[in-house]
Amino acid sequence: MKKYILIVVLSILTIAGAMAQDIKKDVEYGQYNGLPRQDQAMQKWRENRFGQFIHWGLYAIPGGIWEGKTYPYASEFLRGSAKIATSTWDSLIYQFDIPKYNPKEWAAIAKNMGVKYVTITTKHHEGFCLWPSEYTDFDIENTPYKKDLLREFVDAYTAVGIDVNFYYSVLDWHHPDWRYDIKSDEDRAAFERLKQFTKNQLVELVTRYPEVKGLWFDGTWDNSWKKSGQFSYELEKLLKNKRPGLIVNSRMRADEHGSRHFDSNGILMGDYESGYERRLPNPTDKEVLTRDWECCMTIPENQWGYHKDWSISHVKSPLELIEMLVQCTSQNGNFLLNFGPMGNGDIRPEEREVAKEIGEWMKVNSEAIYGCGPADLEKQDWGYYTYNEKNGKVYMTVFNNPVLGKYKIRLPKSHTLKKASLITKQVESLEIKQISPTDYFIIPDKINNKKPFVIILEIVDRASGKFHQKALT
Ligand code: FHN
């Protein structure tokens, strides 16, 4: 008898649990424009695939070292790691002389690396503004440099055809009205002022620099911002009205219940997901294919701003970074690779080298990246498939060489592999052997593969003879 009672109770609990999952919360201040966005600006963002992130601020001056001591934690957090008083930190503004700052050279380095967009920190958590802001004195105008470095930056990158986006930290260690939480009327009043300041600065940015394509929000994880769901919704609306086509990341938003990135019903907010920081999805994760997303990545372990000592953590090689870029593309994501310019305005030699090597690879293989996305084919161990919807071609970028010396491809039965060729010799065909109704080997002749390389596949539907179409499987 007891057993039956237990079964009945468990069944009731299971049904109740399932019903609870179906219950939707009312969300008024969630997703603003409906996803996925298909307008031209968003399509361009998607096709770009590869971007450069730039973290530059006062933290570049000490570069992770304070009074002779090296602090291994992220250099842009040195103020906290070394327990430096706000007034001491803020006085670094008088040392922000940047004799080596050459935005045209920065843009040339980025262009040669193959990026199509850049995202620069206009204001990081320390509160220092790279542009002359009407709303604070803690800005470029009060440095020895004085000039609007952001204008020079926007002009240089725009001139070489790289889309410019602005990173903006809502969290502000300099501003007296910043609150981590709102626990009193005084907090509420202060944070209202901070919200007004934030709004003013953002409107100022999109007005002063009409070239800006997107805003990349950060420092939005504290309770104070999570309690500002309606405000961030209205801010998104205001900014998008001022600058049609503007693209914002999911970090900008919380809904009115305090849920970040995704609203209380699991719907993405902003225009793309920006939660992949220094990590990538599992390469076989299909869930990410359903949305736009971006991974931002550091070259060392966790340094965004300039740190003088890169020996304290693993520094990723260009090949590791290329693999991340390809993986992102294969899973419908963009890859944003970070650079931390030095306190004098120069780009450190290690970053120049990374940019050069990635650029050399991109010059040969970027056809497998730009405008590409997932291929809907079963992932194989040699690397990643990417697919260009416009030309119908599938690209396989090989990172791991099988000891068999041949690369396995698995297609749906409805399709057949018509041709395989190296991206570098597209007129010549590689040998193909079909080994089952679905499986093929591509047998390379001689491939000089010290670097990842790309094979282009022409896959056709047996019935129509047409190129590979999305949603094959
Ligand atoms: O704390 C920051 C960090 O310095 C850096 O700006 C990254 C970039 O995604 N965002 C924050 C941590 O999430």
TrEMBL record:
The record marks 296 as: May be important for catalysis. Residues 37-367 form the Glycoside hydrolase family 29 N-terminal domain. Its EC number is 3.2.1.51. Keywords: Glycosidase, Hydrolase, Signal. One of its GO terms (cellular component) is lysosome. SUPFAM superfamilies: (Trans)glycosidases. It is an enzyme of class 3 (hydrolase). InterPro entries: FUC_metazoa-typ, GH, Glyco_hydro_29, Glyco_hydro_29_N, Glyco_hydro_b. It comes from the Bacteria. The keyword Lipid metabolism does not apply. The keyword Signal applies. Residues 1-20 form the signal peptide. GO terms for molecular function: alpha-L-fucosidase activity. GO terms for biological process: fucose metabolic process; glycoside catabolic process. Alpha-L-fucosidase is responsible for hydrolyzing the alpha-1,6-linked fucose joined to the reducing-end N-acetylglucosamine of the carbohydrate moieties of glycoproteins. Belongs to the glycosyl hydrolase 29 family. This is alpha-L-fucosidase. It comes from Sunxiuqinia elliptica.
